[in-house]
Amino acid sequence: MSSSGRIEDETGYESSLAWLVEKAKLLDDPLTLSKAERIKLQRTYDFVEQRVLEYRRGQLLLTEPWRRKIYDEAGLKYQEFNGGKG
Question: Mind listing the pLDDT tens digit for each residue in 14-62?
């Protein structure tokens, strides 16, 4: 993931997924983190998870542009790859 919070390519997407799996194990075990660490990690986890979902939705729009209307009506964010809103 770039410093702007965008996933730039498939490598970044795969790395983000691997990070989510790794951190989910920590969040799943109540004894691994202090309360403050858990709260901080959960916030970061939620942020990365949202970027992963936005990237995936944006990728789907490249081959299935009809989804854009559904995403917009549902208020779902997506990552633009050709400029525009998202």
Answer: 999 999 999 999 999 999 999 999 999 999 999 999 999 999 999 999 9
| Cα 56 from Cα 71, distance rounded (Å) | 12
Number of domains in the chain: 1
Closest residue by Cα to residue 79 from 20, 28, 29, 4: 4
Question: E-strand spans in 7-78?
Answer: none
Asked whether residue 31 is assigned to any structural domain, the reply reads yes
CA–CA dist 44, 54 (Å, integer): 15
Nearby residues of 27 by Cβ (< 8 Å), 6 or more positions away: 33, 38, 41, 42, 45
Residues 6 or more apart in contact with residue 71 via CB below 8 angstroms:
57, 61, 77, 78
Residue 84 covered by a domain: no
pTM of this structure? 0.86
